[in-house]
Design a protein that fits this description.
Number of strands: 7
Strand content: 35-45%
CATH class of one domain: Mainly Beta
Order of helices and strands: HHEEEEEEE
Strand order of the largest sheet: 1-2-7-6
Number of helices: 2
Structural class: mainly beta
Helix content: 10-25%
Largest sheet: 4 strands, antiparallel
CATH architecture of one domain: Sandwich
């Protein structure tokens, strides 16, 4: 069996078959390599998400601002919530060490992740006007608006010119 001649690579060969075939060959090699080594499922499964952006839902009512943040795999002790002036800050970090030994492999993993989100409230809350609850990886905050923030809404008429 003869080896096929690789496609000619020219600087002006945009859209040539070279790069797709290179990608296919790389995929084949990685699949072949992975199939020849028994791997633990622990190697293939991340311990916690690698995303550093905290997913939040923000709801503003006439009376309060309610924030719901999803922080799966974290405990309430991993999270810090502060308010400085009119800025709400949510931050946290988590680290994990994992070691697994078997006859044919030894795995040591260390992972670290952190997040920090700042949310402008538009007002400085009164003392005692906040509450925070944490359950099943979901943080819920309620920040009551002070009377001065509950401004009357005035509609402005728009004239055609």
């Amino acid at each position: 069996m003869s080896n096929p001649t690789p496609p000619e690579v020219r600087p002006d060969a945009v859209g040539s078959a070279f790069f797709p075939s290179l990608q296919q060959e790389m995929n084949r090699l990685f699949n072949q390599f992975g199939a020849s080594f028994p791997m633990s499922p622990a190697v293939l499964t991340p311990k916690f998400p690698t995303s550093k952006m905290l997913a939040i839902d923000l709801l503003e009512t006439d009376e309060a601002i309610e924030v719901t943040a999803e922080v799966p795999g974290m405990k309430e002790t991993d999270i810090e919530v502060t308010i400085s002036g009119d800025i709400l800050t949510l931050k946290g970090e988590k680290s994990s060490d994992h070691e697994e030994k078997e006859d044919n492999y030894h795995i040591v993993e260390r992972q670290y992740g952190s997040f920090r989100r700042q949310i402008p409230l538009g007002f400085t809350p009164d003392d005692g006007a906040t509450s925070a609850d944490f359950s099943d990886g979901v943080l819920k905050l309620r920040i009551a608006k002070p009377a001065t923030a509950k401004a009357e809404v005035k509609k402005i008429k728009i004239k055609k010119t």
